[in-house]
Amino acid sequence: MSLIILLALVASSSPSYVPPYYEGQPTFAAVASLDPPDFRGEDVYRIEFNLDAKVEMPQDGFIHRSWEDFQKFDHLLTTHLMNFGLQFPSEPTTENLDAYMKRVMEHSNIVNSNVFHDFLGINWSGKDLKFMQSLAEFMKVVIPPLYRAPDFAPEPPVFTDEADCISAEETPFEVYAYLMGFRSQTSLQEFNEWFQAFLSTYPAFDGLEDDSDVQPEGVSVMIPPHFNQTFVHFLPGGYLNGQTVRISFLGKSKFNFLDETRIKEYLTMLYGDKNPKRILDIGTGPGFSAFVLAEMFPEAEIIAVDLAAPYIRMARKWQELRNITNIQFYHANAEDLSWLESESFDLINYAYVLHEIA
Fold it and tell me: pTM here?
């Protein structure tokens, strides 16, 4: 058995790792080891730290940083006029970098600085960012002086299970990735390469090669040639790439039309006094609107379709987790619904589609 296959089997059997949010004042930091390469393919050093934190918060943690990250950190200290007597090492070894970190910890002005906190991946969650929920919030995302982003990415999550991709809270790293996507106009290719490398660590929500596992029985789906010509929202490979499913799912905290509370408010205003028995949700994606409709009209039959098979697999798994039984998710093209017993519906929703073609 090849080493690559062996490593893949080991990774697939390992539990997912979702880094916690760290908040507190560093009291100790040490470079503990040189660990295997990260998603960028770079060798990384494990920095372990202790925090003076609130009782309910983690008191210790770790972060991985590459040699290039250390060099950037030292340069930022110089830029901020805090680099005095630190003696940055000329060679990257665990011992050299640990000695450097000990010298850093001797300077309270560094220990208390944003630069050092960013380097340790602490004291930033990104939860205060609302992205597209209002114009003022969007301005904070795209105009850097209005909102300070960390100088370094927080620790990335590692997902080995599809259910964890759905149930796990958004991590600071993932918020950071979203934010950098909006701010990468002048370095879009570099960001896309970095982002694609990270997304390749996500589960792919794979199924049968012909996607018949999520299609109506006996019905094959032809993907229109225009569907994936533009990769929206910085998604490498577009919606046909199953490794984009979680990052799209996390849009629920950033885009009003994916916020189930807002969807329900709007649909209630329009159709709350109606009693539809059959509903079609076109371009359902992860299923946000389908789930809202199913809960609003529990006696209705919901047919939810999308051209992206991985997203239908995710929606079905989410449906199991939510125990909702009145939705049927299918990989299908809404331009041809002749496979249905009846093409008559009381309500048809396609808000997600309108957003993407606008």
Answer: 0.91
